[in-house]
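User: Hey, my collaborator sent me this sequence without any context and asked if I could get a structure. I don't really work with proteins. Can you help?
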Amino acid sequence: QVQVVESGGGSVQAGGSLRLSCTSTGRTFSDYAMGWFRQAPGKERKFVAAISRSGFRTYGESVQGRFTISRDNAKNLVYLQMNSLKPEDTAVYYCAADMSFSTVVAGDSGIWGQGTQVTVSS
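Assistant: No problem. I've predicted the 3D structure and written it out in structure-token form, which is a compact way to encode the shape of the chain:
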């Protein structure tokens, strides 16, 4: 009965930064691999980043070098630091959790957050 909740979305101009946060309700993040996905209107959901229980990280090519995923298991938090934002980064961003890192990366997580809107204007 684990739930995850995102926060930190908003509107920013191109070139700016935002930091998204995701926390668990009912259980701790330490049991799960975590990931971030995004979906723009009329587009398929796309992989953004994932982090394993041990801290191994992987990124989608479109965000690598600009975004950083991190976790603080003591605080039950995972972050997505987004720098050098572009209008094409505009989307609803979702936090995902699963016991399996590979399952998170594949987009098949059993636990998803409600999403937080990120809007980047030119």
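In plain terms: The longest strand covers residues 18-25. You can pass these tokens on to your collaborator as they are.
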